[in-house]
């Protein structure tokens, strides 16, 4: 046995490594993904010794590998397995988003809209509710106030006390 | 003679069939099956240990790669 995570058991035997994993933790898709990456340098064989475990045998293509090579293989495969399982989970969680973005991209790639599409397009610029002012520009929200109407100005001046605001 | 047991929930039957056909030129292969697995009894036509090792290994990889290429099984 080598020092691997508790949920991956590894055993080194003559020129090969046997890793035993729990398929409820690492789904089959992730195991396939990791195994596929190692096909160019190892002979990979999957076996199911029991319902609750799955054995992956990695045999290096070079005939007599050093023990360090086999140990490195165990570590690399464990990392790859974790990476594939994690990527798979992210894909599952974001499946709807990925589908939406993909279909949007594909519909965009279909070319420019036809005249009929343009005729059907709703160009109206109706007001919509915006209680938080999200659709306002920065100037509208924080910029200088627009000058008041001239009709309002004298009435405001009369309301201010005498001398206030005078230069002399 | 080397027996390789391909579990049905790990390997596709079609992939194992195609593997047996693809390696017929370098090995004599007998196929048997039960409920849970397809077993290939492989007798390589070459006798050197390195050649035997390579034929068996490549056969395993071929079956796995074909299974994965077929797409998701679950």
Structural description of this entry:
The complex is a heterodimer of chains A (168) and B (74). Chain A has 168 residues and is of the alpha+beta class. Chain A has a domain of 88 residues: Alpha-Beta Plaits. Chain A has 6 helices and 4 strands, in the order ββαββααααα. In chain A, strands 1-2-4-3 form a 4-stranded antiparallel β-sheet, with helices on one face. The C terminus of chain A is likely disordered. Chain B has 74 residues and is an alpha+beta fold. Chain B has a single domain, classed as Alpha-Beta Plaits (2-Layer Sandwich), CATH 3.30.70. Chain B is 42% helix and 28% strand. Chain B contains 2 helices and 3 strands, in the order βαββα. A 3-stranded antiparallel β-sheet of chain B has the order 1-3-2. In chain B, β2 and β3 form a beta hairpin. The longest helix of chain B has 21 residues. Chain B is globular. The model of chain B has no long low-confidence stretch (mean pLDDT 93). The interface between A and B is medium-sized, with 17 and 21 residues.
Major sheet of chain A: 4 strands, antiparallel
Strand content of chain B: 25-35%
**What count of structural domains of chain B?**
1
The strand count of chain A comes to: 4
Q: What oligomerization state is this entry in?
A: heterodimer
Strand content of chain A: 15-25%
Shape, per Cα inertia axes of chain A: elongated
Distance between the ends of chain B: 33 Å
Shape of chain B: globular
How are helices and strands ordered from N to C of chain A?
A: EEHEEHHHHH
Pick out the low-confidence regions of chain B.
Answer: none
- How helix-rich are the residues of chain B, as a percent range? 40-55%
What is the count of helical runs of chain B? Answer: 2
Give the overall pLDDT of chain A as a whole number: 81
Distance between the termini of chain A: 96 Å
**Spans where pLDDT lies below 50 across 5 or more residues of chain A:** 163-168
Distinct helical segment count of chain A: 6
- Strand ordering within the main sheet of chain B: 1-3-2
**Do you know the CATH topology of one domain in chain A?**
Alpha-Beta Plaits
Structural class of chain B: alpha+beta
């Amino acid at each position: 046995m080598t020092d691997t995570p508790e949920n991956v058991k590894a055993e080194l035997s003559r020129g090969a490594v046997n890793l035993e994993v729990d398929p409820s933790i690492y789904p089959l898709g992730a195991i396939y993904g990791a195994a596929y990456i190692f096909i160019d340098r190892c002979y990979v064989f999957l076996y199911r010794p029991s319902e609750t475990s799955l054995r992956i045998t990695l045999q290096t293509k070079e005939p007599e590998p050093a023990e360090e090579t086999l140990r490195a293989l165990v570590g690399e495969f464990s990392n790859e397995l974790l990476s594939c399982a994690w990527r798979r989970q992210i894909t599952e969680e974001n499946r709807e988003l990925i589908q939406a973005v993909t279909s949007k991209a594909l519909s965009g790639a279909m070319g420019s809209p036809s005249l009929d599409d343009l005729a059907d397009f709703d160009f109206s610029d109706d007001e919509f509710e915006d209680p938080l002012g999200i659709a306002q520009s920065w100037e509208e929200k924080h910029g200088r106030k627009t000058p008041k109407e001239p009709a309002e100005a004298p009435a405001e001046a009369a309301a201010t006390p005498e001398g206030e605001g005078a230069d002399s | 003679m080397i027996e390789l047991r391909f579990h049905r929930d790990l390997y596709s039957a079609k992939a194992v069939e195609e593997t047996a056909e693809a390696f017929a030129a370098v090995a004599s292969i007998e196929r048997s099956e039960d409920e849970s697995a397809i077993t290939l009894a492989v007798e390589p036509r070459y006798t050197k240990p390195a050649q035997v090792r390579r034929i068996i290994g490549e056969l395993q990889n071929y079956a796995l790669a074909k299974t994965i290429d077929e797409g998701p099984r679950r």
